Amino acid sequence: MNNIYKEIVPYLLDWFDYNARILPWREQPIPYFVWVSEIMLQQTRVEAVKGYFDRFITALPDIKALAEADEDKLLKLWEGLGYYNRVRNMQKAAQIIMKDYDGALPADYDKLLLLPGIGTYTAGAIASIAYDIPVPVVDGNVLRVAKRITASYDDITKGSVKKELWKELYDIMPKDRPGDFNQSLMELGATVCIPNGKPFCDKCPVVHLCRAFHQDVIMQLPVKPPKKERKQEERTILLIEYQGKYAIKKRAAKGLLAGLWELPGIDEKVDYKKLSKELKDGGLTIEAIKSIGEAKHIFSHVEWHMIGYHVKTGQVPAEYTKANSLLWVNRKDMETLYALPSAFSRYISYLRNI
Ligand code: SF4
Q1: Which PANTHER family does the record cross-reference, listed alphabetically (predicted)?
Q2: Cα distance between residue 135 and residue 36, in whole Å
Q3: For the purposes of burial, counting CB atoms within 10 Å of the CB of 11, is it exposed (0-12), middle (13-18) or buried (19 or more)?
């Protein structure tokens, strides 16, 4: 066991008392708020999460509301955060909580782990922050801080390294303030021992203990293998307008952006001539086609390189709508009722401005 972890506890707690950022879910650390915020924080920075959190909690103020929410409303509330399966899993978990736990998240780490979408990180956060149960959380921030403090060259992407750190932290968790200790480590990683660029060691409460600082190896730690290259995909995105409405369609139930609404498209970049032929072959009467520019969207493993066209049509055969599973919606409904992933934001903002 690394005794150094035991030594940092009082310094971190003291620092946290004076430096913790004021956050809505911290002011009221009720289990549901902690859960929602921690799931959101897995993919987005704290500052950006605030707005999403307020919107979500206002619309779905408790677990019952989440369990009963209509899917389109739920996905719309998650719009912009990506990783839509996370909110779908939250709803499944909420339904189980209503059925098995009288609508309250269980105050039990092992029971939390059994709920859909709740892994060791989220279970640890809910248990420690909302219920004062002394279990650690190990996220990227905690791993970075820990490996710098101990000047360890372990590969932090390995599950075994995360597990070992979890056990080491479990052994030294302060029983009276487990939630604050976890948050202090995460907060230090987010605001002082930062991931990109030089950390602010002059502001660090554990600089006197930090081995990476004393060995002058801060920028070499933590160790991560280089990321695999993302797959490159080309796409044509169509904003098809017909009688003042625009076509959207649902993506397949499995795979990237599963089950979400999207603008129809073609799985390659096509030029005006080819597009025009393809649409005419489908029976559409074209009134105008206008290029609306190129865009790029980066997912975790894939990059989309897109070209967009605004297509005005005078006639759309019912068979075309059926064969392509299109739904025709007006601008306002597209904005307010249907969640379109941020991959399409370039084209949605074009629509907003015409
Ligand atoms: S001294 Fe610097 S490198 Fe060490 S934990 Fe503090 S901020 Fe990170």
Answers
A1: ADENINE DNA GLYCOSYLASE (PTHR42944:SF1)
A2: 19
A3: middle
What pLDDT, on the 0 to 100 scale, is given for residue 44?
Answer: 84
Q: Is 251 helix (H, G, I), strand (E, B) or coil?
A: coil
Give 44 Cα–ligand 1 centroid separation in angstroms.
Answer: 23
Cα–Cα distances in angstroms (integers) from residue 320 to residues 228, 280, 309, 317, in the given order: 39, 11, 18, 5
3-state secondary structure of 47: helix
Q: How far apart are CA 301 and CA 306, in angstroms?
A: 16
The 10s digit of each residue's pLDDT in 262-310 is 999 999 999 999 999 999 998 899 999 999 999 999 998 899 999 999 9
Mean pLDDT across 247-261: 90
* Full-model pTM: 0.84
What is the crossing angle of helices 159-172 and 140-149, to 10°? 80
- In order of their start, the domains of the chain are 3-220 (1.10.340.30), 231-352 (3.90.79.10)
DSSP state of 223: B
Q: What is the CA radius of gyration of the chain?
A: 24
Q: How far is the CA of 188 from the centre of ligand 1 (A)?
A: 9
Q: Whose C-alpha lies nearest to ligand 1, atom 2?
A: 201
User: Residue 41 and residue 121: Cα distance in Å, rounded?
Assistant: 11
Q: Taking a C-beta distance cutoff of 8 angstroms, is the pair 82, 88 a contact?
A: no
Residue 317 CA, distance from chain mean position: 39
Q: What are phi and psi of 292, to 5 degrees?
A: -115, 25
Arithmetic mean of pLDDT over the chain: 94
Count other Cβ atoms within 10 Å, centred on residue 137: 26
Looking at residue 45, its pLDDT comes to 86
pLDDT of residue 254: 86
User: Which positions ≥6 away from 229 have C-beta within 8 Å?
Assistant: none
Six-digit token pair at 329?
């919606």
Ligand 1 atom nearest the C-alpha of 145 is 5
From residue 302, alpha-carbon distances to 86, 297, 309 in Å are: 19, 9, 22
- Taking the centre of ligand 1 as the mean of its atom positions, its distance from the CA of residue 170, in whole angstroms, is 21
